[in-house]
From TrEMBL:
Residues 220-318 form the Glycoside hydrolase family 2 immunoglobulin-like beta-sandwich domain. This is Beta-glucuronidase. Plays an important role in the degradation of dermatan and keratan sulfates. Residues 1-17 form the signal peptide. Gene3D superfamilies: Galactose-binding domain-like, Glycosidases, Immunoglobulins. Inhibited by L-aspartic acid. One of its GO terms (biological process) is glucuronoside catabolic process. Its main location: other. The lineage of its organism: Eukaryota, Metazoa, Chordata, Craniata, Vertebrata. It comes from Cyprinus carpio carpio. InterPro entries: Beta-gal/glucu_dom_sf, Galactose-bd-like_sf, GH, Glyco_hydro_2, Glyco_hydro_2_AS, Glyco_hydro_2_cat, Glyco_hydro_2_CS, Glyco_hydro_2_N. Pfam families: Glyco_hydro_2 (PF00703), Glyco_hydro_2_C (PF02836), Glyco_hydro_2_N (PF02837). Belongs to the glycosyl hydrolase 2 family.
């Protein structure tokens, strides 16, 4: 299968330290953004080797001239858009194309740099502009871009044909890993029949999942900005580091403004520390009466020719620390009462969708959640920006999910995993909402290579960002987990009375207590229950409770909560329900049209468990935090 060979070659060629920044494209006096998402055309390469598109060079001419094409919205997964099961379950190369107009002044002004950026595409992408290859990228969930100024100026000018080939094949070395299995028994499978095997529990949606943008910067431009914040008494400190490309002598000026527009600090130079007197710290939702305070940092870089590039970055001033029993935000104990999510919805699959994002934040705030984990991959940047603005705390997870095969602990895998962490930290380092990195979910951390693998991974992540703790999510036994010595916080998933002792909710108390005491006894690190829950098919009822009913889900949660309430006085620092909403999975005998552990349905309607958690989260917030005045009516529930 040719895609696997191609992927391995691509993986090896990108295993080098990242050179450039990946600032979120925003408009400014010197920058324009043109969203070219919308309706694209699409063709799946159904040839047996999935290689016809490359052999026939589909990128060289309009895609419609190569064969039949269909409409495809961007951003969206392609899987659930048609009535064709073959498209839903397709594995291999699919081709997207769109013709766009580039403003004439962008082309004419040679001082303008034109960039094409894809928010994310699943999984391995190759990009052409007017038939010329401009970049390729391995990995979903993270952005990639190419400077296309040269190509546009050399080819047909204002008209721009963008072609993107995307391949969802996963290999032992990708994140997440997967394998292609050929079925050779001719009495059961036709010739050439293959399937993709994975070890994760969500549908492997594919396509262009986030917006495709064209944006401009001046030739000499701000390439990256890194801020780190701290405070002492009432003085906030913002250290900044600005990198400029296209000019070696650009003059950099940095200005920090408060929410009312007042300038509170400024500095000249590409590195330095801004001092903010009477600082307004960034506080999580429900921890302060004025949470999520954001300053605005304007960076100006003026090149020798007088051109100035301007970029404005929201900055929240806060600190994060971990002790052996606590998670401290701004030196105060923070208790995670939150959710695990997925990027997942009807029709659009993993495609970015503003109505869904805003609805989900409204639901999280309604239920009193102060945090979520980006299980099991990085979410759209727009979601992190929402979290910054609403004070929702994030554990930011990379796509290291389903690492179960010992062959996925080799050098190529590790090198790629390190690169993905570099891409993740580069993208998300400036978000105050992000308080911890998670490098993997439920890897086979008891396999011998895991010790070395996680030592490298955690220490590399720390070297990229020393201001945040690092963890991975374990489901392994405390005595056999080989990565736990290296992490800052222990995150444990367990499903007592579901996968173990199904139906026996009376055992949860004993088993969960044992779990916590064992882990804490061995490592003396704070613990987050990073997943727990039970499936509930909405509308299914029974009393006494039986598995799959709403009552059973509630009973499981209640039994877990009793133990959390004892242990949060000691070393348990958080609880994240699995899951916020029902989500699609691959088809199997343990899934009823997807995973039903949501406390909301996939359409975001509450099950009984949602009301239980709402009561609990507001109660905890009432005990531990400071509620906003508008919320006083809710606290009486
Ligand atoms: C887990 C996984 C998650 C699954 C969940 C389940 O441990 O981390 O991806 O969806 O269990 O419901 O089985």
């Amino acid at each position: 299968y040719s895609a696997e060979r191609l992927l391995l070659a691509a993986l090896c060629s990108v295993c080098q330290a990242l050179q450039d920044g990946m600032l979120f494209p925003t408009e400014s006096p010197s920058r324009e953004v043109k969203d070219v998402s919308g309706l694209w055309i699409f063709r799946a390469d159904e040839s047996p080797e999935r290689s016809r598109g490359f052999e026939q060079q589909w990128y060289k001419s309009p895609l419609a001239e190569t064969g039949p094409v269909i409409d495809m919205p961007v951003p969206s997964s392609y899987n659930d858009i048609t009535q064709d099961a073959q498209i839903r379950d397709f594995i291999g190369w699919v081709w997207y194309e769109k013709d766009v107009w580039v403003p004439a002044r962008w082309i004419q002004d040679r001082g303008t740099r034109i960039v094409l950026r894809v928010g994310s595409a699943h999984y391995y992408s190759v990009l052409w502009v007017n038939g010329v290859k401009v970049t390729e990228h391995v990995g979903g969930h993270l952005p990639f871009e190419a400077d296309i100024s040269g190509v546009l100026r050399q080819t047909s000018g204002n008209q721009c044909r963008i072609t993107i080939a995307v391949n969802n094949t996963l290999t032992l070395e990708t994140l997440p890993p997967g394998t292609i299995q050929y079925m050779t028994d001719r009495s059961r499978y036709p010739a050439g029949y293959f399937v993709q095997n994975t070890n994760f529990d969500f549908f492997n949606y594919a396509g262009i999942h986030r917006p495709v943008l064209l944006y401009t910067t001046p030739k000499a431009h701000i390439d990256d900005i890194t801020v780190e914040t701290t405070f002492s008494d009432n003085i906030g400190l913002v250290s900044f580091n600005v990198s400029v490309l296209g000019s070696s002598k650009a003059a950099v000026k940095v200005t920090l403004s408060a929410q009312d527009g007042r300038c509170v600090a400024s500095a000249d130079g590409s590195r330095g520390v801004l001092k903010v007197t009477d600082v307004n710290l960034w506080w999580p939702y429900l921890m302060h009466e004025n949470p999520a305070y954001l300053y605005s940092m304007e960076v100006q870089a003026t090149a020798e020719d007088g051109q100035t590039d301007v970029y404005t970055l929201p900055v929240g001033i806060r600190t994060v620390k971990v002790t052996s029993t606590q998670f401290l935000i701004n030196n105060k104990p923070f208790y995670f009462h939150g959710v695990n999510k997925h990027e997942d919805a009807d029709i659009r699959g993993k495609g970015f969708d503003w109505p869904l994002v805003v609805k989900d934040f409204n639901l999280m705030k309604w239920m009193g959640a102060n945090s979520f984990r980006t299980s099991h991959y990085p979410y759209a940047e727009e979601i992190l920006q929402m979290a910054d603005r609403h004070g929702i705390v994030i554990i930011d997870e990379c796509p290291g999910v389903g690492i179960k095969d010992i062959r996925s602990f080799g050098n190529v895998s590790l090198a790629h995993h390190l690169t993905v962490m570099e891409e993740l930290v580069r993208r998300d380092k400036n978000h105050p909402s992000v308080v911890m990195w998670s490098v993997a979910n439920e890897p086979a951390s008891e396999m011998p290579p895991a010790g070395f693998y996680f030592k490298e991974l955690v220490s590399h992540t720390r070297s990229l960002d020393s201001s945040r703790p690092v963890t991975y999510i374990t489901a392994s036994n405390y005595a056999r987990d080989l990565g736990a010595p290296y992490v800052d916080v222990i995150c444990v998933n367990s499903y007592f009375s579901w996968y173990q002792d199904p139906g026996h909710t009376e055992l949860i108390g004993l088993q969960l207590n044992t779990q916590f005491d064992n882990w804490y006894g061995k490592y003396q690190k704070p613990i987050i229950q990073s997943e727990y829950g039970a499936d509930a098919v909405p509308g299914l009822h029974s009393d006494p409770p039986m598995m799959f009913t709403e009552e059973y889900q509630k009973t499981v949660l209640q039994n877990y909560h009793n133990v959390f309430d004892q242990k949060r006085k000691e070393f348990v620092i958080g609880e994240l329900i699995w899951n916020f909403a029902d989500f699609m999975t691959s088809q199997s005998i343990i899934r009823v049209v997807g995973n039903k552990k949501g406390i909301f349905t996939r359409q975001r309607q509450p099950k009984a468990g949602a009301f239980l958690l709402r009561e609990r989260y507001w109660r905890i917030a009432n005990e531990t935090g400071v509620l906003p005045t508008w919320a006083s009516c809710i606290t009486v529930i």
